[in-house]
Design a protein that fits this description.
This protein has four helices and no strands. The chain is mostly helical. The protein has one domain.
Length: about 120
């Protein structure tokens, strides 16, 4: 398998993992983190112009998931825990990075189709 095909495959698997992990954002967060890094790694190997945005997205997802897991480990927020609900704002990089990653991935795939590095339409001869 050549480098170009491997890079595209990694990006597609990462994109799908990010979508599937969103079914349950807490338990699926690890799947989303791995998918975001696969997507960023695929963009890095492709040397795509949006790769830095995907790096940022993956980093935001990791930071947000880390905060979310720490808050969960501490017993949660709000209610009778004694911790304010405002602490949940520190987990905002997770959904922001997730949305940013999906949008940038769609733009990247659109560019790949436009440039002809991905076959489009009827490929039957």
């Amino acid at each position: 398998m050549n480098k170009l095909m491997l890079s595209k495959t990694m990006a597609i698997i990462g994109f799908v993992a990010m979508l599937l992990g969103a079914i349950d954002p807490l338990e699926g967060s690890i799947v989303i983190v791995m998918g975001a890094w696969l997507l960023a790694l695929g963009a890095m190997f492709l040397q795509h112009r949006y790769r830095r945005w995907l790096y940022l997205s993956a980093l935001m997802i990791v930071l947000g998931v880390a905060v979310m897991l720490i808050l969960t480990w501490m017993g949660g927020i709000g209610g009778d825990t004694g911790r304010p609900m405002a602490l949940g704002l520190f987990a905002l990089p997770y959904p922001i990075g997730w949305v940013m990653g999906l949008v940038v991935a769609i733009l990247m795939f659109r560019d790949l189709v436009k440039t002809g590095t991905v076959k489009q339409g009827n490929t039957a001869s």
